[in-house]
């Protein structure tokens, strides 16, 4: 309801601006207009109908605005832009459990600090100059997985250094697909999802993964948002 009220307020403001602009232009061009001439100018301003108002403010027609559904989404407190993009990407993939999302985010933080150009050891080499160790968002290490990222980027017109390409490759890898159903099964604990993370990444050192996951869990808040009904 708050979104609807805010939208109506924005439409009214936009409508007012739309009405004023032609009048101001008329006055500027003809500063000595008599009262009847000014009234004629006002009469020529045609108010926008409801659909025109909605499209002016939102870029959508009134029909499109009404064709929405309310869904639950997780948002992160004090998230970086990259963290937010990863969170939204995972939810768009159908992962809705708070602990599952937190576990994936915690593991990515442990692997790369969400830096897509990072080579193992912390140097920002980019894909083609990372000669040893892991690379990128989840530190692809084995030759097969590292080369897989490059091949995927080439085949689909992406850049192996960019977040979007790495995320798309990440969820298409065999290692991810083997545990995809676990991420999409709600109600498990962080420890349970961490077992899936081990199968996915094959890490040798646990490090702060669970600690990071718990921090992300505490930072996630669920809100209601409206999205087009056909998504």
Tell me what you see in this structure.
The structure is a single chain. By secondary structure, the protein is mainly alpha-helical. It has two domains: 2-66, no CATH class; 74-228, Lysozyme, CATH 1.10.530. The chain is built from twelve helices and four strands. The protein has helices at 2-29, 35-44, 50-58, 62-66, 81-92, 98-112, 143-155, 163-170, 174-177, 180-183, 190-201, 209-219; strands at 68-76, 118-119, 123-124, 220-228. The chain is globular and about 60 Å long. The model is unreliable at 1-34 (pLDDT under 50).
Give the overall pLDDT as a whole number: 83
CATH architecture of the largest domain: Orthogonal Bundle
What is the name of the CATH topology of the largest domain? Lysozyme
What is the molecular shape? Answer: globular
Rounded Rg = 26 Å
- End-to-end distance: 21 Å
Question: Can you summarize the main beta sheet?
Answer: 2 strands, antiparallel
Provide the succession of SSEs.
HHHHEHHEEHHHHHHE
Q: How many helices?
A: 12
Percent helix: 55-70%
Major sheet strand order: 1-4
What fraction strand? 5-15%
Query: What is the level 1 CATH name of the largest domain?
Result: Mainly Alpha
The residue ranges in which pLDDT falls below 50 over 5 or more consecutive positions are 1-34
Task: Count the domains.
Answer: 2
Structural class computed from helices and strand pairing: mainly alpha
Number of strands: 4
